[in-house]
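Hey forum,

I'm writing up a methods section and want to include a predicted complex as supplementary material. The small molecule is S-adenosylmethionine. I've pasted the protein sequence and the SMILES. Can someone with a working setup run it? I'll credit the forum in the acknowledgements.
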Amino acid sequence: MFEAVAPGYDRMNRLLSFGLDQGWRRAALRDLKVKPNARILDLCCGTGDLGLALPRGPLRVGCDFTPAMLEIAARKARTGRVAFPVVAGDAMRLPFRPESFDRLIVGFGARNLSDLRAAFREMHRVLRPGGRVVILEFSQPTGRFARWGNRLWLRTGVPWLARLLAPGPDAYGYLRDSVLEFPEPEAIARTLASGGFERVSWRPLWFGTVAIHSGRAVTEGRPGSDRGIGAAPPGAPRRAPPSAASLPPTAAGRPRPPRPGARRAE
Ligand SMILES: C[S@@+](CC[C@H](N)C(=O)[O-])C[C@H]1O[C@@H](n2cnc3c(N)ncnc32)[C@H](O)[C@@H]1O
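Reply by user p_vandermeer:
Happy to help. Structure tokens for the complex are below, copy them as they are.
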């Protein structure tokens, strides 16, 4: 699906978000608190809009499992004369050594991950102790009116625009389902905490249709407990055993019946 949407991905992003998406990315990059000599991973980098928007100076690397997305990211980096090496890899089995990065950011990628808990553990593994993670993702507003408006937009506006502008695979039906089925911000925060992150917090943007989570890879203590956000008993190993707490299945995490006209990934 991502292969198929890659060529029109940037344009659809701008259109479906009314041009707001780049502002959300800038907000997430501010929360990343980048230092000049940092090593930064843009995970699920897609066409590179996050990594390429970072200030010059730090080492930045993009990683994604869709070659067509990576090709576009590499082309944009060449055109902008930006050093942004991209690496093919799966978020659940990252091709990096432990503690390779000081900062890690995921933009609109988390809801696509079939095992968010495993992905968070991988993110923790490749971050140095004390390294910062930022997750920018669609969310659902808590206010009744905003929630209703957001659902209406996702269920009617998005598919209509997508049929008009991007006929072909039903990627934007998937967008709707994956946003509506993605866990609430509190659940994401708990999962981050159980994956080894402390000082986890989040902030809503644009009436809560988008949320930015951030946290810090624990420096000591045993991650994996669900005793609360940031809770980690001292003196235990840094890597967490899988937590018993469970997330509801996401659109990415369960098999879906094919939609009429939908192209299946080979
Ligand atoms: C909606 S795009 C987001 C791209 C970009 N970060 C942005 O801000 O626009 C989601 C990306 O996640 C990638 N992705 C999904 N699951 C992945 C996985 N398990 N491992 C690596 N990349 C994945 C897809 O290939 C796609 O490029």
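Some notes you might quote in the supplement: Helices lie at 2-5, 9-16, 21-32, 67-79, 116-126, 144-165, 171-181, 185-194. Residues 2-217 form a domain with the Rossmann fold fold (CATH 3.40.50.150).
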